[in-house]
Structure formats: C-alpha cells, structure tokens
Fold this sequence. Notes:
The protein has 208 residues and is mostly beta strands. The protein has one domain (2-207): Porin. Helices cover 7% and strands 57% of the residues. The chain contains 2 helices and 11 strands. Strands 1-3-4-5-6-7-8-9-10-11 form a 10-stranded antiparallel barrel. It is globular and about 45 Å long. The N and C termini lie far apart (36 Å).
Amino acid sequence: MMIVVLGGIVGACAATVPIRVLPKGETHVVASVGGPIVPDKSPTVVVPYATAGVVYGVTNDVTVHGMAHITMAMFGVAGVDVGASTRLMKHDAWQPEATVALRAMMMTDFGGWSTTRLWPTISATCSWLDGAVVPYVGSHVTFELTNGKPLVSPNVGVQIELSNDWWLQVEGIWQAANANTRSGVLEGQSSIGDRGSLGMFIAARMRL
C-alpha cells in the first residue's frame, strides 16, 4: 500500500497533462517518465515512474485526457486518471495563457474498496509562447480523500516543438511541498526543509 500512496503522489504530477488545450478534433498520444530525485545515490538518480495516455480536443477551449500508470501495473496495481482542461485566458503579447485542469486518479489492487484509493486533483498553468519554446509555471493540488489533506505541488517547465507533430516537455516539480516527508519511502532524501520532494519529468507528445 505504501507503493500505491507513493504512486498517487508522484503520478498526480506526471508531465502528461497538456499545459495548453488542443485545437478542436485534434488527438495526441503522450508518455512521461520521471519522479523524485534521490541525491544520496552516486550518481544521483530519479525514481522512474511512467505514464502514457491520450489527449483529445473536444472544443477549442476544452481538452479531455486519460492516462494509464505503467509503473503501478508492474506491482499488480491498476492506476488510471481521467480529466479535462480548459483555457481561462488566451496568450497575448506578454499576457500568459492560463489553463486549469480537473482530474480524478484511481488506483486499486483489486482487493476491494479497502485497497482502492482516489485522488481528485486540480491544476493551474501559466505559459508563454516564444517560437517553438513554451516556458510555463503552475501548481497541482491533490486531495487525499482518506484524510482530506491537500498536497500542493508547484512546478516549472518548458515545452519544445521538435516538428509539426512532435513535442518534448521537461518539468521540475516540488511534490507535496506542504507535507512533512522526512520519514517514509524516500526518507526525505529529496525534501526541502523536510517538506515534499523534488522531482523531474520528461514527456513526449505526438499528434495522430
């Protein structure tokens, strides 16, 4: 169950949710890998956590997305999350594009409701267009329904257009920045002041 909890925190922040909505009718496949940084290892490593899924533009202002948590399947746990993003403000000169997303992530080992977990998540992102390079900042807020405590995870990253149909995304994140993580799975190795954990993700996206 500890692995499920870790997966819930890490997976909610995987760099697969689009930082901007897609045009109407457009479909992309995405994949992401990354996780908490473990500085005590030599060399420093990133705990691998993989997700993959599909993103679809329902309208020019609303995009839906569904993801499978690949790493969790290796431990006999089914993990999925579904959600939708919408544009609140369109990019204009120095004005950033503002996007918000709502997601519901569920994980289960099919042992009944006692081993099933649900994490609702809301995220907000501001991005700036600079040619083929789009820098962005944002934050996720993930709620643990077992205790109602919100986990706040600020992030910063960049999306790079490699071609008309391929994009690369690199993101750094302070996962669960408001939670005391000095003890636990990673024993606070990547925490800042015993809070949260620093993580890094890299994602690829392809237009179908």
